[in-house]
Amino acid sequence: MDVDVRQLRPGEEAAFLTSVRVPFLDPATDDPAERKADERWTAHLETARAWVAEAEGRFVANACIYSMDLTLPAAPGRPTPVVPMAGVSAVGVHPTHRRRGLLRRLMAEMLEDSRNRGEPLAGLLASESVIYGRFGFGHATSATEVAIDSHRSSFLAPAPEVDLRLISTDEAAKILPSLFEQARRTRAGEPSRNSLFWEELLEDRPSQHRGTSALFVAAADEGYVLYRSQEENVMRGDRVPIVIDELRASTPEVEAALWRFVLDLDLIGRVTAKRRPVDEPLRWRLADPRHLRMVGLDDRLYIRLLDVPAALEARGYRREGRLVLDVVPPRDTLDGQPDVAPGRWVLDAGPDGASCRAARAGEDADLRLGVTELGALYLGGFPASSLAAAGRVSELRPGGLDRADGLLATWPAPLTVTGF
Q1: Chain mean pLDDT for the chain
Q2: Are 420 and 68 in contact (CB under 8 A)?
Q3: What is the pLDDT of residues 46-61, one digit of tens each?
Q4: Does pLDDT of 335 surpass 90?
Q5: Residue 302 falls in the annotated catalytic set
Q6: Is 224 part of the annotated catalytic residue set?
Q7: Can you tell me the distance from the alpha carbon of 243 to that of 376, in angstroms, rounded to the nearest whole number?
Q8: What Rg do the C-alpha atoms of the chain give, in angstroms?
Q9: What domain count does the chain have?
Q10: CATH of the domain at 306
């Protein structure tokens, strides 16, 4: 049976969404709020950046790209730079058409489109972590879930006083996007958010509650926190668990104040915070840091470099250094599709900027690694020496790993909160 992989056509957005639901086991409902959300999603779909596999007039696989940008590691004392990113999303193959190469064909379309648009990298969040490494996507950021009993959360020093106010979701829609934009420029790894993201987040449909209350929003001039309570019988004396969906601030002082606000709520017990950085600063504010427990660790953003010089020149570096990288193709070359990422690259970088070019004859490489591994190292969340210890990076010249660790490292650790 022939299967045609093609670009989505205008007017097919609803059929595309119906197709996306199948591999993600998410059937449509007649709930008016959910139908409204579906209409909003299809209205924001970039039709020119969506693809389907069609068999006998039916969609049997799907994928799309969101045009985004991504925060990158910064040089000392500077805000994080941003770079265009192809946000790969809605990738799925129907169970009736698995093992037929449709994912490969869709990926080839997406990466070619991204290269043609001049995007130096693509990124995605993976439903299964084993899928995308063969296409050159490397695990670049992680996030933790942490928990603490509010009664064991004393700080070593008082949190700063800030003007905090509880606001409605309508008011939040007006002020949170700019607060988020300020906060995301303090840490690498965060994609931009479009209006669809904020509408979905702040509409706060009952289906999004999952055993918790509606959303509470507290905001300050330089940050905000979104939190929910879980169902408990307060009148019986139960302590109410709190779940923090998002806590963002553009300064450490405001972040500390936001934490203290939630931890000091009346009637509460355990506080759990989702999608927090692996270098969570809260631990170092606590009088007894042992009480902050990491209850989860998730892989988040996967990065695929498309234009190595442009990508490496876009990010910041904390120290001077020179690194020669021998980058080999990923396992799946997508039927020989042109890929300019593999090659031998010379990176000269420092706090004042970077240059990256193809190596000349006689310029020996420090490291050999795959496109996938370069994606994992790109945001500085993982040292090259760790990947080398796992057999995924080879040191070709003595000291190459030390140079790579020092040059590519970033602080604070990269974090990806935004889903797409």
Answers
A1: 95
A2: yes
A3: 999 999 999 999 999 9
A4: no
A5: no
A6: no
A7: 30
A8: 23
A9: 3
A10: 3.30.1050.10
